């Protein structure tokens, strides 16, 4: 029987190291000092592999390398390419995440203005639970154009804005490259739709091409803050009165990471970004989890009125991912109590995208878009204010069907971030948080960003929007309506089991107008409405804690 060391040497897991050592010894013995170029190269290569393998045996950080010297490095190499291998070679057309290959392909085709039709029939399981469809009319109409718009601005707004029903969602300069921002805004100008700045401030790249802008104000107040992070009304007024800025959006939370602040590390806070955001260069740029300019729903409404006055009457609203229902209903009670109403509300679903977020926040925190939208839509009906407040939505909206579905559930318009990123050339490499985006979209690396030619990609942004609106017009015509605003819950159905289906009207029936105020809120909302407090959600939490204490 062979000695233990020899047995180990010839185990499969040690074979690469054993062969490397044997190869080095054989080459040196055979050629001695007269090694030619090829044998010298082979000796150096095998010698390097031997050194790596011997080091693997003695290192203590990686158990798999101690048991599989040299060969375990192949595992680490392939693991690094795992997302790409799965996305390009293994996944099917309809089940890729976050966006399926089928969806990405349609966006690429529309952006390139090429044929976006598919052959041979659907690949979806139409009898599977959760399948949804739009019910068409026996008397379809002829599509009459695709420039669909909605007016945003309530009775207190002096400068209402007629915006497209499909727009670019919030993405900041700093998160996206300068070339990406230039291309998005140029495409928005060409197509006459709006471009949300994100909370990173109003940059020169947003303004160069003159596309309509929604200025997002986050908890860091970038572009309208003092150096210590407080809201600066004078700085806000100076920027907000720019003609290119059409609406002001207060960001309360983001779908992919609600309740979580953000930080741009000091190394990434370049002098340019520091100047745009109004922060110190070379220091961490912090976005707190909560606002300092207001702390309660009542104060938020007062802040909205203040921004409306400072902007000379432009539409002002807020964006949030809904969490506890009573918190949103507290906002509704504050509207009633102050008689100050936002011009619009954007509901961001938890399925929304982000450059980086903790796994627990991204996967399990916050309300999905459709549930959040129906709650907000029903609440505004319940307080009798739906007619004066517009509702936008964002969260994995990229195709005409998804827009139509959101409109049927109560939205007035939709925003898309990742859809327009695909139009820019994003390949869903999932490298956004590494600053190594392979297409120059989500990076601040100038060498990577130069790959994105803004003039070329602006045309694709415009094409994607235009083609999607044409598809939406055709969907509306097939349903027998002239405008997508005519979509209703009765147009859409979902398979709730293998043998039964339900319309959206059955799944999400609306409340009676004004029923929350009159005390007739139905069972879905009665408890949350009773717990809602305009003075702050903390009072609602105290009530819930007391109820739990009593119940125990």
From TrEMBL:
GO terms for biological process: glutamate biosynthetic process. Keywords: Membrane, Transmembrane, Transmembrane helix. InterPro entries: Aldolase_TIM, GltB, Glu_synthdom, YerD. Pfam families: Glu_synthase. Belongs to the glutamate synthase family. PANTHER family: ARCHAEAL-TYPE GLUTAMATE SYNTHASE [NADPH] (PTHR43819:SF1). This is FMN-binding glutamate synthase family protein. It comes from Methylocystis echinoides.
């Amino acid at each position: 029987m062979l000695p233990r060391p020899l047995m180990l040497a010839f185990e499969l897991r040690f074979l690469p190291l054993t062969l490397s050592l044997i190869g080095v010894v054989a080459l040196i013995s055979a050629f001695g000092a007269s090694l030619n170029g090829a044998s010298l190269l082979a000796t150096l290569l095998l010698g390097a592999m031997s050194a790596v393998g011997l080091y693997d045996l003695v290192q203590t950080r990686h158990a798999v390398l101690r048991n599989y010297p040299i060969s375990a490095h192949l595992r680490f190499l392939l693991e690094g390419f795992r997302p790409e291998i799965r996305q390009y070679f293994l996944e099917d057309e309809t089940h890729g995440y976050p966006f399926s290959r089928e969806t990405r392909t349609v966006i690429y085709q529309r952006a390139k203005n090429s044929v976006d039709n598919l052959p041979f029939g659907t690949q979806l399981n139409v009898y599977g639970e959760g399948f949804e469809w739009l019910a068409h009319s026996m008397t379809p109409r002829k599509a009459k154009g695709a420039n669909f718009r909605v007016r945003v601005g309530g009775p207190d707004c002096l400068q209402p804005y007629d915006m497209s029903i499909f727009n670019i969602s919030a993405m900041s300069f700093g998160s996206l490259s300068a070339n990406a921002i230039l291309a998005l805004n140029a495409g928005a100008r060409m197509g006459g739709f709006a471009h949300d700045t994100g909370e990173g401030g109003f940059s020169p790249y947003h303004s160069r091409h003159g596309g309509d802008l929604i200025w997002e104000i986050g908890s860091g107040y970038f572009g309208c803050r003092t150096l210590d992070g407080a809201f600066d009304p004078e700085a806000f007024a100076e920027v907000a009165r720019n003609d290119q800025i059409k609406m002001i959006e207060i960001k309360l939370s983001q779908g992919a990471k609600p309740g979580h602040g953000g930080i741009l590390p000091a190394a990434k806070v370049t002098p340019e970004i520091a100047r745009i955001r109004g922060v110190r260069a070379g220091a961490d740029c912090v976005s707190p989890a909560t606002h300092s300019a207001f702390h309660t729903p009542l104060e938020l409404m007062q802040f909205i009125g203040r921004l409306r006055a400072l902007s000379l009457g432009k539409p002002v609203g807020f964006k949030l991912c809904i969490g506890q229902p009573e918190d949103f209903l507290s906002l509704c009670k504050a509207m009633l109590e102050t008689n100050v109403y936002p011009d619009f509300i954007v509901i961001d679903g938890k399925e929304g995208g982000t450059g980086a977020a903790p796994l627990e926040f991204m996967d399990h925190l916050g309300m999905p878009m459709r549930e959040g939208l129906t709650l907000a839509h029903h609440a505004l009906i319940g307080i009798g204010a739906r007619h004066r407040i517009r509702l936008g939505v964002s969260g994995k909206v990229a195709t005409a069907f998804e827009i139509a579905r959101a409109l049927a559930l109560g939205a007035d318009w939709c925003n898309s971030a990742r859809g327009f990123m695909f139009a820019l050339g994003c390949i869903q490499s999932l490298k956004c948080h590494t600053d190594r985006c392979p297409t120059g979209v989500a990076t601040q690396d100038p060498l990577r960003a130069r790959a994105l030619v803004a003039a070329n990609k602006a045309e694709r942004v415009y094409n994607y929007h235009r083609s999607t609106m044409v598809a939406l017009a055709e969907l509306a015509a097939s349903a027998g309506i002239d405008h997508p605003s005519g979509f209703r819950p009765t147009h859409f159905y979902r398979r709730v089991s293998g043998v039964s289906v339900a319309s959206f009207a059955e799944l999400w029936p609306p409340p009676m107008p004004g029923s929350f105020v009159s005390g007739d809120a139905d069972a879905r909302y009665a408890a949350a409405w009773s717990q809602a407090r305009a003075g702050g959600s903390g009072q609602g939490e105290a009530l819930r804690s007391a109820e739990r204490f009593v119940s125990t």
